[in-house]
Design a protein that fits this description.
Number of strands: 16
Order of helices and strands: EHEHHEEEHEEHEHEEEEEEEE
CATH architecture: 4-Layer Sandwich
Low-confidence stretches: none
Bound molecules: acetamide
CATH superfamily: Carbon-nitrogen hydrolase
Number of domains: 1
Strand content: 25-35%
Oligomer: single chain
């Protein structure tokens, strides 16, 4: 199975252009599963909740899902992509999973980062695994990485590949994903942004270096810091089912939750 991280430079508030660019990038390189960045259609750095509301779309009825559904059908692939979701009065930083047969699932970011708390409501549904036939996928978004519980919960449910849409601004995640993948025995596709959002004379830079990490914590592929690119790896998702680190130690069964109380 070929998995891909689409590293792109999104332009703030240019959803049509960003959707077009994303499709161009994923058409360049054949893969079975593509992961796009967080908020890939709108850009990241909103001035307030009203601006986030204006950029948000209903899922899966909105234009971004419509374009992604058409692309997944045409390219016969699965896609995970981040976008702002409008759900009545509520707004979520979300990612959608779409396959050749259409919309499959939406994940609402559980751990909001910094100013996102002013723009979005925190995710209201638990982490979940999605079986797409060739692999079992878990979705998380950017800052979810800093909470070990995010990937642990996805691994305990049987996820083989963590689809990690990101707009990273801190320098820690790429190194941390080595441990997250090793401790859970899973693959991760971290699809990050490059470039900047410039707002009101200030700018926020995104760190690039998208990464595909394997179940033994090896960095299978890493993108550059500044350039748009598509990272692809050929993997066997079944490798994530082997949680034995050695003949005596099983990553999940050896846990001692009864002794983890504070
Ligand atoms: C982040 O969660 N976008 C840093």
């Amino acid at each position: 199975m070929k998995i891909a991280a689409v590293q792109m430079n999104c332009r703030f508030n240019e959803p049509e252009r960003n959707r077009r660019r994303a499709i161009q990038l994923l058409e360049r390189t054949r893969a079975d599963l593509y992961v796009l960045p967080e908020l890939f259609n709108s850009g990241y750095w909103f001035s307030g909740r009203e601006e986030a509301q204006a950029a948000a779309e209903p899922v899966p009825e909105g234009e971004t899902c419509r374009v992604l559904i058409a692309a997944a059908k045409r390219l016969r692939c699965h896609l995970v992509a981040g976008l702002a979701e409008k759900a009545g009065d509520r707004l979520f930083n979300a990612s959608v999973l779409i396959g050749p047969g259409g919309f499959i699932a939406c994940y609402r970011k559980i751990h909001l980062f910094d100013e996102e708390k002013k723009w979005f409501d925190p995710g209201d549904k638990p982490f979940a695994v999605h079986d797409i036939g060739v692999a079992k996928l878990g979705l998380m978004i950017c800052f979810d990485w800093i909470f070990p519980e995010s990937m642990r919960s996805l691994a305990l449910q049987g996820s083989q590949i963590i689809c990690h849409s990101a707009n990273l601004v801190l320098p820690y995640c790429q190194a941390a994903m080595v441990t997250r993948c090793l401790e859970n025995g899973v693959f991760a596709v971290t699809a990050n942004r490059v470039g900047q959002d410039r707002r009101g004379g200030q700018s926020l830079s995104f760190t690039g270096r998208s990464q595909i990490t394997d179940p033994r914590g090896r960095i299978a592929a890493r993108a550059s810091k500044l350039m748009e690119e598509v990272l692809v790896q050929d993997i066997d998702p079944g490798r994530a089912d082997d949680k034995w680190l050695n003949p005596a130690n099983h990553l999940l069964n050896d846990r001692r939750p009864a002794l983890y109380q504070s």
